[in-house]
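Methods — Computational structure assignment.
A single polypeptide chain was analysed. Its primary sequence is given first, followed by the predicted tertiary structure written as structure tokens.
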Amino acid sequence: MTKTKHVEFTKAMKHTHTILIPQMLPIHFTFLQHILTKAGYHIEVLKTRGRHIIDEGLQNVHNDTCYPALLVIGQMIDALKSGRYDVDHVALAITQTGGGCRASNYIHLLRKALIQAGYEQVPVISVNFSRLEKNSGFKLTMKTLIQIAIGFLYGDAIMWLANQVTPYECIEGSCDRCTKRWIEELCDQSSSPRFLRLKHNLNRMVKDYGAIVCHEQKKPRVGIVGEIYMKYAPLGNNELEAFLLRENCEPVVSGVLDFGLYCLENVQFDHAHYGRNRHTYRLASHAQQLIKKIQQLFIEVIQTDGTFRAPASFNEVKSCADEMIHRGVKMGEGWLLTGEMVELIHSGTANIVCCQPFGCLPNHIVAKGMMRKIKDAYPYANIVALDFDPSATSINQENRLKLMLANARLQSVFEDQSTHEKSDGVSV
């Protein structure tokens, strides 16, 4: 790939430029925006959706490009063309993994697209922890990184609780109002010591969600796994969670902190087995221990309260992965994706949707490639893989989901009959 022009985001630009960030997790990125704003940056998270985003992406990158890249680049170019921004005082931020995944090259595709669209003056910030690129005007301090980790814990907590309440609320909108209240309160707290009172805030949060009046109708639980963008971004997965709610299901989505822990685990794995990361593996180990500690705090708060199911710890997911796949399989979402599927089955969520970009080789190996092995071990597992690309229609995807849900409801009927017969003393 031809190296494209690199316009640096300078220290002076920190005060003059608005940084646009593509949205992935609506709750988490709201916290991210507030934390980075408090750190002195002018941040805006792009929330645009619609077919025009895909079309814009198709005009600026090859249609064989990884679908998340096409969406993110399309969303950014669409924003620049919208007229809402001074294109001489705007910058774009994008993550760069540094691994073998094509995500490492998104930034070069974006810069090429900017030149093609006539925006070569727009700087692109690489957000990475692999020393791939530096921008003198964009630096994340340790204080900011800790705040982001805590913000993402709160995001994981809200997402986990809301998904257990929304399908069962007696008064429609009660859960959304609770979620909005907590997002606003935590955003207000983000620059004060109250933001760090994790146990206090999490206890109050669990009590608030637990106080929402809910019915006891049984609904199928459906786990969502997959490539990180497709798993979390409504733009990427055609608002999958909303669809499952309309189909009277309970979505089950693990937190994004697990992905961060997975990346840190891989840094240590590479050091132990290949001698890599000599200067960073100790820092990765300390960061992992901190994130595990705050994640465990949420688990303990939920278990103590007793109202909701607690999420699995990262160590539990890791153990589930070890049943099926070697930990050296770590390209893309790697062994984490397989581990998430097995953990969902262990915790009683046997219906699973796996979202992946069409042609994503790592995810085809650790998702589709592992399904037969998982089903051999757990014959009752009901797993469907959904491929996403510019030509995939939501109707076809929804039809596949409805078939999976029909199987889920049929299995639920059989389980209810079996339970009833056992309670009546009938051998089954």
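Note: The chain has a mean pLDDT of 90.
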